[in-house]
Task: structure prediction
Amino acid sequence: MKVLVLTGAGISAESGIPTFRDADGLWEGHRVEEVATPAAFQQNPQLVHKFYNARRRHLLQEHVRPNAAHIALAEYEKNHDDDFLLITQNVDNLHFVAGSQNVLPMHGQLMEARCTETDRVIPWREDLTPSTPDPETPSRRGSLRPNVVWFGEMPHGMDEIQMAAQNADLFLAIGTSAVVYPAAGIVQETPVNCRRIEINLNATPQSGVFTETIRGSASIEVPKFLKRLQLEAKTSGEA
Ligand code: OAD
Result:
């Protein structure tokens, strides 16, 4: 059984990372969409860096750890014999910390920086400013940006995502509001006979296309559902 998982901010909410759209969706009075664009970075790089620096610092706090949902996905993957791909829209690193292996962070990673000149990606934990150079090319000042995908930019791994969607036997969407494309459209790419499961506190605009919708918190419902899957596989003799 080929399993494809898509996660969004809701899976990390119980790890203490605020979602994008659940409260007022604002950061210091700015809509996230206004800070997370190439145009915003060009016009006001200080502001965009400040936004991502705050998020990076938050992620580095000791109490921000993977929760039971991240951990259950990593354990499920370890025991799964067929294809397993975990696509995440989250820029936090919690799936990696939990031990997931085949992770595709389609919106990039907060703990990475990318040189705007060379596209070199490097692990990054510090604050960035408009004049932070790539340490390997310090003469080119101001060329590092967060390695995250902004509105209007192409998410990573779209070919791999499309292929995995078209081949999926089971698609599991966890904690995503299903309003940001192309992620929101992945479910539509899965075959008609694919078992589509949505786990979310609330209904989403895509809920209607899922085979089963589970309303509840990710930390409770994800381990429960994955246990059920394993039991089903055991009784049917599958991996
Ligand atoms: P959103 O903030 O839009 O949605 C979070 C979803 O998680 C909502 O549908 C909530 O109902 C659900 N939720 C919240 N807490 C939950 C919990 N404990 N258990 C289960 N579900 C819960 O986040 P995303 O869908 O990830 O893009 O947002 C998609 C993209 O929009 C982000 O990757 C980001 C953003 O702007 C970029 O930055 C490019």
Summary: The radius of gyration is 18 Å. Residues 120 and 136 are 10 Å apart (CA to CA).
